[in-house]
């Protein structure tokens, strides 16, 4: 895609919301928190999410806005402690680490352009992501902006639909670190339980 992505609030909200969905999907491979939670703080990984290294806890409803607050691209690495995410700002990196991160962001954009050509997708084409009780329909431009601003460490691929769905022209398939795929409950080849067990 050669068009510059609009950075209006609606576009940024869509990109940040999608990034948070990727984080929630990968959380399924993590261990639930066993730590003591002070009264009123909510359940980590459900009601709140913790971002390292600052240790800041953010309410689930506020995570997209929190991600939108950064003016630089962000690397987000879910940890094995459910609901805890390591966050690194691209502008804070230097030397080889900065070069490697920039290379990853560029590779993802090149891959998206390649996939768009293969599947005949445009910026306005609709994609669908389904897992557990989550269902997201978004434009290809939203996915591109998400991958441009938020590097979430979860496997992903844009693939043709496995079934007829009037809502979308393609699907976003996520692959967790435990091998589970985001098949989605509406897929006739899989059911919702298999999203959590990677079968």
Structure in words:
The protein is an alpha/beta fold. The protein has one domain. 33% of the residues lie in helices and 23% in strands. The chain is built from five helices and nine strands. The strands form two sheets. It has a five-stranded mixed beta sheet with strand order 2-1-4-3-7, with helices on both faces. A four-stranded mixed beta sheet has the order 6-5-9-8. A hairpin with a 3-residue loop joins strand 1 and strand 2. Helix 3 runs antiparallel to helix 4. It is globular. Residues 1-5 and 191-199 have low confidence and may be disordered.
Q: Summarize this, please?
A:
The chain has 199 residues and is α/β, with parallel strands linked by helices.
Sum up the structure in keywords.
alpha/beta, 5-stranded mixed β-sheet, 5 helices, 33% helix, disordered N terminus, disordered C terminus
**H/E element string?**
HEEHEEHEEHEEEH
Tally of DSSP helical segments: 5
Helix content: 25-40%
The largest sheet, given as strand count, sense and whether it forms a barrel, is:
5 strands, mixed
- Could you tell me the mean pLDDT? 87
Q: What proportion strand?
A: 15-25%
Secondary structure category: alpha/beta
Low-confidence blocks of residues: 1-5, 191-199
Tell me the overall shape. Answer: globular
Radius of gyration: 17 Å
The spatial strand order of the largest sheet comes to: 2-1-4-3-7
Quantity of strands, as a count:
9
Number of domains: 1
Distance between the termini: 34 Å
């Amino acid at each position: 895609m050669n068009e510059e992505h609009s950075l209006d609030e609606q576009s940024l909200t869509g990109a940040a919301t999608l990034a948070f969905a990727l984080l929630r999907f990968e959380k399924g491979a993590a261990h639930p928190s066993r730590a003591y939670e002070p009264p009123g703080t909510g359940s980590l990984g459900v009601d709140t999410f913790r971002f390292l290294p600052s240790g800041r806890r953010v309410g689930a409803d506020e995570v997209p806005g929190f991600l939108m607050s950064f003016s630089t691209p962000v690397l987000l690495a879910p940890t094995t402690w459910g609901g805890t995410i390591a966050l690194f700002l691209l502008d804070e990196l230097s030397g080889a680490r900065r070069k490697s991160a920039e290379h990853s962001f560029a590779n993802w954009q090149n891959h998206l352009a390649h996939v768009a050509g293969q599947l005949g997708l445009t910026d306005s084409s609709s994609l669908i992501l389904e897992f557990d009780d989550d269902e997201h329909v978004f434009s290809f431009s939203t996915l591109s902006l998400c991958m441009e601003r938020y590097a979430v460490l979860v496997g992903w691929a844009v693939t043709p639909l496995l079934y007829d769905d009037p809502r979308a022209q393609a699907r976003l398939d996520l692959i967790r670190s435990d091998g589970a795929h985001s098949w989605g409950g509406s897929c006739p080849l899989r059911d919702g339980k298999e999203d959590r067990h990677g079968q």
